[in-house]
Amino acid sequence: DARVTQTPRHKVTEMGQEVTMRCQPILGHNTVFWYRQTMMQGLELLAYFRNRAPLDDSGMPKDRFSAEMPDATLATLKIQPSEPRDSAVYFCASGLGSGANTDTQYFGPGTRLTVL
Amino acid sequence: AQKVTQAQTEISVVEKEDVTLDCVYETRDTTYYLFWYKQPPSGELVFLIRRNSFDEQNEISGRYSWNFQKSTSSFNFTITASQVVDSAVYFCALSVFQNTDKLIFGTGTRLQVFP
User: Fold this and answer.
1) Which one of A43, A92, A103, A112 makes the best mutation probe of the B interface by having the most chain B beta carbons within 10 Å?
2) How high is the pLDDT of residue A25?
3) How does pLDDT run across A17-64, given as a tens digit for each residue?
4) What pLDDT is recorded for position A21?
């Protein structure tokens, strides 16, 4: 049963600390998405990659957030320095895509981040 | 611009009742895709179904069924004989052919099924 995996599942940290979230996409999927979910904003697309190349990171606060794909099986989202307003659930999703199109997006279990 | 509206914020039913979750979408594109995702209390987002705009056949999967009507721009989801395990937030989403990378989500409907 192929699934997107994310680590850690929960993270509590203090303001100013660096946070790194990791995602392993479904094997064979070439497109990886990062979303953030909050009560106020719902699901927001932060950034996404295809074949490890960033396609769009316009939803991401550039000054503190960074996303990378060191290899095809690992995507990372880093926040440095973290702030209380970054508290949210961060989802990774993966799918098969080409051009500007992705088939179905399959989501991971999410990382619940709390910044104190 | 595209938009998805889930007007029902929260629905409560008693086990074994049937329940329909409404989804209305807006797009000027003729080719598009509609999705439903389930988010149970554990928090993960689970894919349920994907339909393309050329396929208006209703879909049934066990106790779940989906009614796609282009005439009313709706893609409603019905759970028959609801169970406590159906308690979750359900999201409807839309993507258009020119850019299916971008999923437009509704705000979700929280379904509570009481025993």
Assistant:
1) A43
2) 97
3) 999 999 999 999 999 999 999 998 899 999 999 999 999 999 998 899
4) 98
Cis peptide preceding A81, ω within 30 of 0: yes
Environment class of A98 (CB within 10 Å of its CB; exposed 0-12, middle 13-18, buried 19+): exposed
Cis amide leading into A8 (omega within 30): yes
Q: Which two tokens stand for residue A46?
A: 């932060």
Question: pLDDT by residue (tens digit) across B24-40?
Answer: 999 999 999 999 999 99
User: Which of B50, B43, B47 lies closest to B88, judged by CA?
Assistant: B43
Closest CB to B44: pick one of A56, A102, A109. Answer: A109
HEC-encoded secondary structure of chain A: CCCCEEECCEEEECCCCCEEEEEECCCCCCEEEEEEEECCCEEEEEEEEECCEEEECCCCCCCCEEEEEEECCEEEEEECCCCHHHCEEEEEEEECEECCEECCCEECCCEEEEEC
Per CB-CB distance under 8 Å, the chain A contacts of B51 are none
